[in-house]
Amino acid sequence: MATQARPVPEGILHDRFQAVRALSRAIAAPLSDADATIQPMPDASPAKWHLAHTSWFFETFILRDHVPGYRLFDQAWAYLFNSYYEGEGDRIARAKRGMLSRPSLAEVQNYRGHVDAALLDALSGLPAEALNLVELGLHHEQQHQELMLMDMLATFASNPLLPSAWLRREDDAPPALPALSGVRAHGGIFEIGHDGRGFGFDCESPRHPALIHPHELADRLVTNGEWLRFVGENGYRRPDLWLSDGWQWVKENGIEAPLYWQSDGEDWLRFGLDGLKPLRLAEPVCHISYYEADAFARWAGARLPTEEEWEVAAAGLDPMGGNQLDEAGPAHPHPAPNGTGLRQIFGDVWEWTASSFSPYPGFRPEAGAVGEYNGKFMCNQFVLRGGSCATPRGHVRASYRNFFYPHQRWQFSGLRLARDL
Amino acid sequence: MATQARPVPEGILHDRFQAVRALSRAIAAPLSDADATIQPMPDASPAKWHLAHTSWFFETFILRDHVPGYRLFDQAWAYLFNSYYEGEGDRIARAKRGMLSRPSLAEVQNYRGHVDAALLDALSGLPAEALNLVELGLHHEQQHQELMLMDMLATFASNPLLPSAWLRREDDAPPALPALSGVRAHGGIFEIGHDGRGFGFDCESPRHPALIHPHELADRLVTNGEWLRFVGENGYRRPDLWLSDGWQWVKENGIEAPLYWQSDGEDWLRFGLDGLKPLRLAEPVCHISYYEADAFARWAGARLPTEEEWEVAAAGLDPMGGNQLDEAGPAHPHPAPNGTGLRQIFGDVWEWTASSFSPYPGFRPEAGAVGEYNGKFMCNQFVLRGGSCATPRGHVRASYRNFFYPHQRWQFSGLRLARDL
Amino acid sequence: MATQARPVPEGILHDRFQAVRALSRAIAAPLSDADATIQPMPDASPAKWHLAHTSWFFETFILRDHVPGYRLFDQAWAYLFNSYYEGEGDRIARAKRGMLSRPSLAEVQNYRGHVDAALLDALSGLPAEALNLVELGLHHEQQHQELMLMDMLATFASNPLLPSAWLRREDDAPPALPALSGVRAHGGIFEIGHDGRGFGFDCESPRHPALIHPHELADRLVTNGEWLRFVGENGYRRPDLWLSDGWQWVKENGIEAPLYWQSDGEDWLRFGLDGLKPLRLAEPVCHISYYEADAFARWAGARLPTEEEWEVAAAGLDPMGGNQLDEAGPAHPHPAPNGTGLRQIFGDVWEWTASSFSPYPGFRPEAGAVGEYNGKFMCNQFVLRGGSCATPRGHVRASYRNFFYPHQRWQFSGLRLARDL
Amino acid sequence: MATQARPVPEGILHDRFQAVRALSRAIAAPLSDADATIQPMPDASPAKWHLAHTSWFFETFILRDHVPGYRLFDQAWAYLFNSYYEGEGDRIARAKRGMLSRPSLAEVQNYRGHVDAALLDALSGLPAEALNLVELGLHHEQQHQELMLMDMLATFASNPLLPSAWLRREDDAPPALPALSGVRAHGGIFEIGHDGRGFGFDCESPRHPALIHPHELADRLVTNGEWLRFVGENGYRRPDLWLSDGWQWVKENGIEAPLYWQSDGEDWLRFGLDGLKPLRLAEPVCHISYYEADAFARWAGARLPTEEEWEVAAAGLDPMGGNQLDEAGPAHPHPAPNGTGLRQIFGDVWEWTASSFSPYPGFRPEAGAVGEYNGKFMCNQFVLRGGSCATPRGHVRASYRNFFYPHQRWQFSGLRLARDL
Prior knowledge:
4 copies of one chain form a homotetramer.
Chain A (H helix, E strand, L loop, with lengths): L9 H19 L18 H20 L10 H5 L23 H18 L5 H30 L24 E4 L2 E5 L15 E5 L2 E4 L5 H9 L11 H10 L7 E3 L4 E5 L2 E4 L11 H10 L7 H8 L35 E7 L25 E4 L16 E3 L8 E2 L3 E3 L1
Parallel strand pairs in A: 8-11
Antiparallel strand pairs in A: 1-4, 2-3, 4-12, 5-6, 6-7, 8-9, 9-10
Helix pairs in contact in A: 1-4, 1-5, 2-4, 2-5, 7-8
């Protein structure tokens, strides 16, 4: 949860609330009620569920708890739209979220309207503690906006017709791919974690010193073209390149390429929210698991960066920059721009790090149900950094820690290489 | 497939086609696009899929094969809406039918309209062979009408909100339950199977003599009240009452009552397409597996009838009578009417028999893909007889053989007791 | 259980008891303690367990229940060596029988000695009811002798070293394969089931009339050579030949040949208790599932016989004849002898029939725990007839009904073709 | 693998080789061939397999690769006794190791004798590289000695008779439990990892500076008595105490106590290689998973130490001290001795740390197949430190890193609490 002393001014919060809530609606705009109902796998949730759950979050932790006289939109919905908060009682099994043809998408949109009106109405009278929860709720909703894009993609990819959510936006001819260079970093003690300015999740705190060893980071992300070489040189068939668990995953699932790649016999295509398109070699590779990222790095004679190395490198860069989500549409990573120095740090694809998701020294989860936000997931997952083309601009920062299980790859994930010096 | 010499006259077929196709639409009327998209379990299919598959059947086996110049509505849809015809090529995995948010319900209804128009247009020019296939297609669609009701019920039962598809139709006060009597039948050789008059599926043929032993059949179905006694006397906890496979099924699945029953601590309720309602004791028990039917019969000191015994008993009764489906609505079994002699033979609930589904002596499946209709399922399943409240009136007959696996119970299935004499 | 009026004379029973018990020991003779401990799959049991369980049967149902003052060899062993008798209380999970390194094989042999001595000592004083149970126990042990051979084969086949239990007995040069002829049978009513002379299991009764339709039975079993043609003509790759459940079984398990066949690239070999040997074409095919037998018959334009057809044909033949088990050793089916008329009816391989294992009209299981012997398995299994090369001679008869699930094939099972006339 | 410049002198290696190899035999001494054949779960291996695999290691990497003219004991055994070395070719599936009744335990002991003789014979002529591999092989065998004890315990615990491997050695009356105190540690930069003196596995290197934050370590291990309070205060029923993955593990497996604990209704017992005995409260809790350790620490208002904190604390202590394995017997943790300062650092139980098993900065696996020893497991596992009562004395050291998956608990694992200062 938020680690900030003073809440955001109410006027700003008012506008941000409206903007964030509007983006969720816009993302769902191409979806029919049926599209928004499907759960393509237990990891993913229906779009309708995301729309409702983010509203439940505001309704539960702000309206119910801090607005006297507020009446729940529907008593029965807490059971449907609680995600994983044990402190908030029983809930529908995660794998059963796709059974909810009722309430309809329209009813869920009504629910959103109801919560929006009540919250905007109450905003000026909320105590600081509740305003912090509004802030948390907005960041929470931004996370679900990216999840919606991921889950919509997984949904359409499960349909043999491979529908597209949006028409393809015309791309420029892809630029020539800049050569890969290394950016050297010296060792030393650096401060890591959220610095207290603006919003941060609890897992980014406390800020603390970390010891960094001399190393070098690639100045751009690994591309589809480079990944094709890995495929061509039998990267998916050489056990020596893989972690033991990764190799088992490859064999059991018959993995031969990143998720959403398919070959038509001659050429590789990739499926996205804009449909099935030829693979562009200069773009960053996307939708790979930690196992794949790790194997590729080993094949390349390199390794993944640690999250501390990444954060130190990112500290001086603009978290609002790069290819991030500005409006609803088929998020897609772009080739690295020309130039020198670290590029693509923010946006394009989440970068797998070598760091497992663990508590920082002195970490304390928040009190109450929102204390379940991050802490209880600090096991078996790896940290990803930097946001992606599907991350709403303004959501991510240098200290931001995302996390997934090492086999997961429906998120917009790629990698940047690192080397010891 | 059909075992009939002469096709139905075209005018009659024309009207029947329109009536059958209209009923499917009416059954789907209460469904939203999302309702019609959900697949609650691999055994069940989305309503949308049923609507499309039944149309694919007409399009493939009649329009494509017998109407020169007919163009498929959409080339890609054969992959989506072929059910299990290996002879018709690859198809979507059965458990993935719930991924089809596209095409939408409206598009599927357009598809139906297209097929309807083309078929009615072509009807007068079709050869006898194709007319027989139309007849088959209508019976096929009636089967799917019952499946739609079963699958809609499974869908709504998977939603914690327990929505109802139709408002409850007012019931009369339940009649006093008639006492159970036995109807004696002498042994001998009887003709079994389809007699060649009217339509019959291939598995009902050839008609052949069968040897019946003296026995007695209950004059009515087993009721919810009788089943409650079985529950109360620990019927679900006594292994001596169960087949070995049945007992394993009970333990692994924690079975304690028929499907869709739930207890609120004091009373038993049952869920149906009209919502959650108090259990009515005089109604026939419904939604039980073969294992449960067999265990109940053992507990009652009786047995299940064989399919031959049942057919001989049913031979003289009116297959158009009883509680069958006349219009779209929440199919529900009724208490036995007062009277003497065999009642509830047709309609109310399908009656589990002791007979496994096997080929009749001399059975030959049809040539071509429709030969996969029944024959390849003649293993591991049990025969049910008599139709149910969800069976469209006119579909069933004395020689009709339905079949399910012994653990399945989402169909409208119950039992009638039998005893050796 | 036994359906016989008068028990076998005690002197004869005494000798038979010693002979049967000795054969079990002889079958286990090539096994080390470790060999006798392994459970290669949940369907199979360790040899040690068979040796102990058959003794537990005598100890429980005769010594404990009918011999005053008898003390159990070890109180704790009932939990270990009860197979599936719910009436006899809890027991080790079936899949955990392979955890019993203790008691040792030597201790189990001591147990056998103890039970043997006590039973032989008590024999002359036993009431008729108990003598019938001794008779049942001997037939029970003969069943387990065949199971031991099956399970030893499964055990050794699971060891990459492919050890042999016995050295190969020298075979004669295989005879020229007799051509296949059909033996015609007219229809009519025939008596089926155990005739009350000698021992019979409860599932063979009551004897009852059955209606047979005109048909033809092959005069010998299907051979390996014929099966190779089926393989070569893509029998395992044509879904039209298979039952739906069978086809799923083929695909999920990658089935391409009978169990224990392997190809060295050029030639087919088969593994047996005498090791890995070249496949001999004139021998009956063995270790096939019902699904395979059914698919082969369809491919051959034939069908499987019903159990009634088989029994009528076998009624006049000598059940002591044919290739059955006379002494411990690597049971192996033989080519059909020259001649005319039905051959290989008894022995060589169990013959799959088209009949599911169901109760005969009027069937009543025995009272008490031995009532669980057969009746509770009358579901989902198919009947096999005629005994095999691994069936102790004297155990089988025309009315004998063996049964397995349609996917099982570690038993010595093959097929004989039939056709409607 | 070894990170040491100079090999151990050959004379010392000779004696150590004999001692280590003798201990393996002694551990297996109470086992019958059958005991040594059973695989109680896929994670565990049969004792026979351990005995053979450790010999295969010497045979493959030293005798085959470095002793001209050496002939393999049996060509076929590499397939049986390779564990996970992809570089050494195919091998028996891990879950099938329990199928090896052949070779017998006696044959495996012969194999050991053969390898011992050849290796001792060759020792004086081996190049330094091979001598380092001998050293590695000895440490490898010591690891398998502990695994043998773990797997024997799992084997006997799977037998309803609960046999004991060794008679109970008489214990003293348990001492009064010393109170728990905290030992404070200041922060700073400390050297971590193997210092190059003596043997170390590759994963302990390179030695590198680590930043430690001020904290406090408990001076002794958590006891059974303390764990009983956790159980009594519903520790296994409060989701707020658990990691999300841990809570799922608890629910899916019905976890209610440490492995090998059982309640007789009144008292708690624990099963060990000396049989089923009353639980002694002063002894360290043993056989717990990471999830349990983490939940307990949260319940206690503490946390687990990091591996760096642990190593710094252990650096000055004698790794030969404490309750470690000196001879074959039922390894069992002891109560903490009286005194002040850190106790039980070495021996008794492996201590779960909060650190996931990751490569140290600059880590490089060895070249060749032994490079698969540790590196490929650096994912999804947690580090345990300090050795246990089942660890051969002399095997462990301050820099030693053991690792298991967070749900595993058949190892001798417990915990020590830590707190931030």
